[in-house]
Amino acid sequence: MIQTADDGDLRVVTIDRPGQRNALRPTDLEDLQAAIEGADTPVVLLRGAGSAFCAGADLDSVADLDDPEAFAKLGQRVADTIEGSESVVVAAIDGAARGGGMELALACDVRVATPRATLGEPGVRLGLFGAWGGTVRLPRIVGEGHALDLSLSGRVVNAEEALQLGLVSRIVDDPRAVAESIADNDHQSLRIIKSRLRDRGRDAAQRDADRFDAEAEAFATLHEANVDDIAASRDD
To answer: What percent of the chain stands above pLDDT 70?
Structure first.
């Protein structure tokens, strides 16, 4: 379930499945995309309810997928929507960001963590990987060496290490205050700055279009090979 609340110059988008650590089903991804596309505020704060930011894809849904390639492409579209939004999108990472949850955070313009934030790409342990654009965005943000380390090991980093790696830009107690401070700036300037800085990566993004397709195909192949392990992990 995705909750949306507009408060002046700020739209707060909440992934609201705390009992499932805000894991995302296909319908949740579609609703999240709509919430971002429908924003007419200068800043959007993306957060999770309860004790997690987002645990990534809902494993019940992943295990039962009829078309895993389409699911991967849906996640990619949501991440692209976040990245391409005219609003500045701030990820409020409070608690766990795993797999697809970290990938959606990578698509945000600003990532801030609370002291209890943890981030990781543990899909490799289940025979999966970051198919929502993670293999493209992660090395851009932290560099190829750190991206390989995080992706191949599946290890989880805490807020301090995430800051050192550049996964987040700061550690704060109140991520909303960061989003509000950004929204206090000139709105036209925010749009222009985001557009100009994002334009620097636009040519690279176009070149990466084929890589996104390859990600979706590879996800489908790995899903077929490891679906039993994925299903079993739902009980862990």
So the answer is: 81
